[in-house]
Fold:
Amino acid sequence: MARDWRDLFITRDGGVATTETDAPEQQERRRGFFGRLRENMRKTREALTDELQATLFENLDDETWERLEEALIMADVGARTTAEIVEQLEREAQAGDLTGGEQLSARLVELLADAARTGEDTIDLRPSPTVVLMVGVNGTGKTTSLGKLAWHLRQELGQRVVLGAADTFRAAAVEQLEQWALRADVAFVKGEQDADPGSVAYDAVATGVRDGADVILIDTAGRLHTQDNLMAELAKVRRVISKQLPDAPHETLLTVDATTGQNGLRQAKLFAESVDVSGIVLTKLDGTAKGGIAIAIARELDIPVKLIGIGEQLEDLRPFDADDFARALLT
Ligand SMILES: Nc1nc2c(ncn2[C@@H]2O[C@H](COP(=O)(O)OP(=O)(O)OP(=O)(O)O)[C@@H](O)[C@H]2O)c(=O)[nH]1
Ligand SMILES: [Mg+2]
Structure:
């Protein structure tokens, strides 16, 4: 069942909080989450299921495997991962382990889920305070994702949060984050327009430490890995943070826009080569028929997808659950 915010965040009051998961309201809520995930990912699901019609798995022959391979590659799962998954299914079918389409579909969901999982996909909030830095290419969803994260941390988990607006390029960027701070009812730290982003990050951390915050979330301006001056600026933001708190930033999240497909994946790879990234926020999965990119990211970047965006609403940012994701792709 859908992973909840309490499963994503490890909090000081008791490890990964998986309490109450069996309560009926909780189960109902999780079913609702899955329904929305499935609905918002329908472009990918429809593209896949159009290819993989029910009859395809009735006779398992070369055509079956070819069509399956094509469908997965079209969905941006990635050539290597697709080949591995299809070979595995073919082997199991030949060995007589898979009889009938239903078993094969179920096994395909399992293999896709396995491929989408990599590394440590929780976020540890036990350091006090925990600093989370949001980085990524322009327009990929940094500010809105951070705002939504602030809301969930404050309103659902009761964390004391500081939002830091270290994107000082545009006044609108600061206002956008400030609106989220108001909505989430969390503290907000900004600088003058064109202020040094490092100084804003410094103030945000200082404020958090002074006021006993649990989590400090820092937004940054969009940039490309090729913009040397901006990448150097990001390195400086990190240095300023770690001078105050030696282990910080504890978490660096890289946003990737799913609609940019393989190109976005390549960009993310290069970005992650120059900045230490601990997790991916994969946004705009609602806007693409190629949602398989989540699997390609996990496999080819070897960085866990921790959060996904499936729309513009508050509840459309959610913890990534590989099993639910794979089920939503195919069923
Ligand atoms: N449909 C959809 N839209 C999204 C999602 N995530 C973000 N957006 C939209 O994408 C647009 C850009 O989001 P921002 O959060 O401003 O992106 P950003 O990375 O901060 O952009 P810059 O600061 O300009 O680099 C906004 O209109 C968001 O509402 C998503 O999961 N689905
Ligand atoms: Mg922004």
